[in-house]
Amino acid sequence: MKHFIKKAARKLRAGYLEEVSGELRWMYRYIKKYRLWVLMYIVIGIAGAGMGLGVSVASRNLIDMVLSQDPARLAGMAGTMAAMAAGSIAASAAVSRVSAKIMVDVQNEMRGEMYSRILYSRWEELQLYSTGDLLNRLNSDMGIVSRNVIGWLPSLLTKGFQFLAAFFLILYYDPTMAVLALVSAPLTLLLSRMLIRRMHRYNREMREISSDMMSFQNDSFQNLQTVKAFGLMGVFSGKMNALQEYYRERLMDYNKFNIFVSSYLSIAGTAVSYLCFGWSIYRLWGGYITVGTMAMFLQLASGLSAAFNNLVHMVPALLRAAASAGRIMAVEGMEKEDTEDPEAEELRRYRGPVKIELRDAAAAYEGEANVFSHSCFHVASGEIAAIIGPSGEGKTTLIRLLLGLLEPAEGSAEVRWKKDGSDEYMCSCRLSAATRECFSYVPQGNTVFMGTIAENLRLVKPDAGEEEMRRALEQACAWDFVSAFPDGLDHYIGEHGAGISEGQAQRIAIARAVLRDAPVLLLDEATSALDAETEKQVLEQIIKSDSRKLCIVTTHRPTVLSMCDRIYEVRDGALREV
């Protein structure tokens, strides 16, 4: 049994070390990329540390010259000491400047890469993370990692140089003093082994708690109107207090451990200082050293102890960065959407009629039962198809299947098109991320972004002119109210559509979809905030504007159903035409 426990412990340590080393290797690739700047950082840092040590030696000589009344060399030594002090200050300033430049470059690059990775990742994998968690990883974790990518290795080498140089300098003058200055090192190293594992676990836990808090805050702010409407401010404040209390409990638990470690280091440092001070007095009393040498010893011993403690404290900082790196790596490891498809490339160049077709298709979320199965669906250019059905039966799932956010669990889902003057839809391509350019999508709710109306429209067509945007707004029955704004197309929309009504936001979103000029228009309850007459007018104008357009709407309104060429119902796990 004892042998089994030891074997299990070894495997656990091996797995832990492998995890941490993998996170550190991931960080190293950024250090390698900026190696010239990091090298400059290291050289300047070591030069500054060397000058600091030079000040200690110069102060020794200066004190001895004053006591021996040697004015001939006093001015020169004072000048040397001042020059070294100025050099040390200049080196510190240069390190600060270089580190700031590298940090902002690394942070921007890393954050930009991670942001793009999130945007291009598979939709299903993104559902494993809450918005708050992703924001926490993108900002807080990225900040921790970028700071350590820049500073950890240079700090290690600079502090290491400072430690070794001080040690050998003391060793040169007095070997016993060098031993006394490091008397606390074995116990400190032993304690650091305890600190490493606990610190890594704590950092992971605290980052997760922080993500939970950010997710909760983001969710409550996104639904602030509902919170206020139901008078739930006290309920949500209570939940926030509960999250903060849990955070406090975990923080205080770690703080207890941290106080123990800090107290030990303080006691050890104080004891070493007194030992060195006592030994210096003894040597001075015996006439073995001068007053200047004693002052240098005390200064170097203090610097040696401080450098050693700094090296020990760098371990927790590195583990904190490793924990954050692990969280970033988890997001970076998400599978990217497949946007490369030769057939989709041909479809993008095509400008004729198209057809959307599902044959014996099934849709399911990973690890769950089919939402619907053995389903067929087809709609061609010039047609409007409605999707109806009770809530929760699969209408939104069908939209996700059409947009390539989900892949069919069974059967096929394709977009088809004609070729070489044929009347048949001979060419086909499976629906995926690569075919998404063929769709203009208007989801439920408010989907306009902060910025002007023109900026919202140009998201889908950056080179759109004012006349082109006006036509799109007219088709969406939005031009009348847009032209009535004092700034017109430059009217600013705030967060969550502040400054316009829900119906106006929907019509701007529809105009944006129209401006994209894609052959397929998906409207997911996108006209719910419009009156029946406006809704009918919008749909008629969209279809009349381009004969190759086909429109798919999810709706319950009879006025829309009366305009549709096809009506499909999702019910009892199947999609059927009615």
TrEMBL record:
Residue stretches making up the ABC transmembrane type-1 domain: 42-320
Residue stretches spanning the membrane: 34-54, 74-95, 149-171, 177-196, 257-282, 288-312
GO cellular component labels: plasma membrane
A molecular function (GO) term: ATP hydrolysis activity
One Pfam family here: ABC_membrane
InterPro entries reported for this sequence: AAA+_ATPase, ABC1_TM_dom, ABC1_TM_sf, ABC_transporter-like_ATP-bd, P-loop_NTPase, Type_1_exporter
Subcellular location, record wording: Cell membrane
Residues of the ABC transporter domain: 356-578
SMART domains in alphabetical order: AAA (SM00382)
Keyword Ligase: no
Keyword annotations from UniProtKB, A to Z: ATP-binding, Membrane, Nucleotide-binding, Transmembrane, Transmembrane helix
Main subcellular location of this protein, as a coarse class: membrane
Bilayer disposition of the protein: Multi-pass membrane protein
Protein name: ABC transporter ATP-binding protein/permease
Protein source organism: Candidatus Mediterraneibacter caccavium
